[in-house]
């Protein structure tokens, strides 16, 4: 639950302008009402950033404030309606009917439009025990009054409910996040090819919601402007994901896994994020995801490709250990590549050169070293010496970031290989797995010194540096999904 809620969009913070206006208005020893001198537009900005119940209370101040509240696009978060001290764990004892009634009153009273509605606590009651408020009333009002940004989480969980199909009638949406719903299946069956259900939708997030392959297909078809698709904590639901969209720029499989991921036609796709680690969920050692990359002319950022988890195909051609590069097995547009490797598992580490050959124009390479529970054989430097040419190493890679460095011989052999092959390398960053321990830091630096002193380095850049630091930064969904960040794997 904590991980899922860390991915769900939050409300905007107060702007400096609004905060300054508030502090100016209630200050001063003369008690003068300075806030009322502000323009309606600024008052509206202030009201839009207040919790919903406080924003509604401003209407009691004067007729002018009533007009301001009514003219301000509504921002509603049901968390602001909860009691300050919940009665019992998971909200047991909370008067959910009263909270649901408050949501209904606010939605009915405000004329619209609705800027943002976030229902993350009372949806379960409204969908099951509240007489169907969510399906019968709330979604109807949200559609009629034009909500831009909608978050619906069926909480408390695992007491769940099926997602009402009426969510497909909210055509005004620009962002939609759905979480912890038992079943999306069937909600899109009435859609036909060519239907435009979400003409303005830019971002869609599905968090631990059971959904079928055909439903995702239909959602993509009926959202012509969709730029961002996120599947969060979806463990093999659906088992197969097809990405076919002319508008998508970013696809995230966050703490998720599927048997097949087919990126078929996505000409505008810039970023494909794959992150399978999820607290409380463990995939079987035999579980693999077949990742097929098709028509992706603009794909610049890809990762983390996992040599244990991902069976890579490019244009339906399987990439195996020893696969030679060809026009059918390369993606030339990728500039930033992240790979996850268990160097202690021989067959997985041997896939690393083949993966690198598929992306000949990579400039920044991120490697995450994963610990092997049962090592099956180490790859020494001789193996890497005998590896054939790798185009990106010889002519493109300028920066390498190696995470979770533990100082074992397999990791050192790979770093030496990079050092002696990467002709344009100007920076190598080593992030330690146990960097908080000063003794460990000194020990790791001692192991890396021979590498830095080696005369066999390929790069002629005199400013080439090795930076060693501790692992003090956690990768996050927000960074991975932020298209304004050029390298989402940096932190």
Automatic annotation (TrEMBL):
The F-box/LRR-repeat protein 15/At3g58940/PEG3-like LRR domain, residue ranges: 136-367
Domain of life (superkingdom): Eukaryota
Residue ranges occupied by any F-box domain in the UniProt entry: 35-69
Domain FBD as annotated: residue spans: 385-430
InterPro entries tied to this protein: F-box-like_dom_sf (IPR036047), F-box_dom (IPR001810), F-box_dom-containing (IPR055302), FBD (IPR006566), LRR_FXL15/At3g58940/PEG3-like (IPR055411)
Pfam families assigned to the protein according to its UniProt record, in alphabetical order: F-box, FBD, LRR_At5g56370
Name of the protein described by the UniProt record: FBD domain-containing protein
Natural source organism: Setaria italica
Lineage: Eukaryota, Viridiplantae, Streptophyta, Embryophyta, Tracheophyta
Gene name for this UniProt entry: LOC101783670
């Amino acid at each position: 639950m904590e991980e899922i809620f860390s991915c769900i969009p939050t409300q905007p913070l107060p702007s400096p302008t609004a905060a300054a206006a508030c502090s100016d208005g209630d200050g001063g020893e003369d008690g003068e009402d300075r806030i009322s001198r502000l323009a309606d537009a600024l008052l509206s900005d202030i009201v839009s950033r207040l919790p919903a119940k406080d924003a509604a209370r401003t209407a009691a101040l004067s007729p002018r404030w009533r007009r301001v509240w009514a003219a301000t696009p509504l921002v509603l978060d049901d968390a602001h309606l909860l009691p300050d001290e919940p009665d019992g764990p998971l909200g047991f004892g909370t008067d959910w009917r009263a909270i649901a009634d408050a949501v209904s009153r606010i939605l009915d009273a405000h004329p619209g439009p609705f800027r943002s509605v976030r229902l993350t606590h009372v949806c379960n009651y409204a969908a099951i025990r509240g007489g169907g408020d969510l399906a019968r009333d709330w979604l109807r009002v949200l559609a009629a009054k034009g909500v831009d940004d909608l978050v619906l989480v069926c909480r408390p969980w695992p007491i769940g409910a099926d997602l009402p199909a009426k969510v497909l009638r909210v055509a005004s949406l620009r962002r939609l996040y759905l979480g912890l719903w038992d079943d999306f299946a069937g909600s899109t069956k009435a859609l036909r090819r060519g239907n435009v259900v979400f003409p303005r939708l830019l971002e869609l997030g599905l968090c631990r919601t059971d959904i079928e392959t055909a439903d995702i297909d239909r959602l993509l078809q009926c959202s012509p402007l969709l730029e961002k698709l996120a599947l969060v904590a979806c463990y093999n639901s659906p088992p197969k994901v097809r990405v076919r969209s002319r508008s998508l720029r970013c696809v995230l499989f966050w703490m998720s896994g599927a048997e097949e991921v087919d990126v078929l036609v996505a000409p505008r796709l810039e970023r494909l994020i794959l992150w399978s680690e999820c607290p409380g969920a463990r995939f079987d050692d035999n579980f693999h995801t077949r990742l097929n990359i098709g028509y992706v002319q603009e794909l610049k950022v890809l990762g983390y490709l996992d040599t244990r988890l991902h069976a890579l195909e490019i244009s339906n051609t399987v990439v195996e250990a020893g696969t030679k590069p060809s026009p059918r097995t390369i993606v030339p547009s990728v500039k930033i590549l992240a790979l996850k490797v268990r160097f202690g598992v021989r067959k997985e580490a041997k896939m690393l050169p083949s993966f690198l050959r598929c992306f000949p124009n990579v400039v920044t390479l991120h490697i995450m070293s994963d610990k092997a529970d049962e090592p099956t054989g180490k790859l020494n430097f001789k193996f890497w010496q005998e590896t054939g040419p790798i185009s990106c190493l010889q002519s493109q890679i300028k920066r390498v970031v190696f995470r979770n460095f533990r100082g074992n011989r397999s990791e050192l052999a790979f770093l030496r290989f990079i050092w002696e092959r990467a002709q344009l390398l100007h920076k190598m960053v080593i992030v330690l797995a146990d960097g908080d321990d000063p003794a460990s830091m000194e020990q790791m630096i001692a192991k890396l010194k021979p590498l830095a002193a080696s005369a066999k380095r390929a790069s002629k850049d005199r400013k080439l540096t090795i930076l060693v630091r501790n692992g003090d930064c956690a990768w996050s969904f927000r960074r991975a999904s932020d298209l304004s960040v050029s390298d989402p794997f940096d932190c």
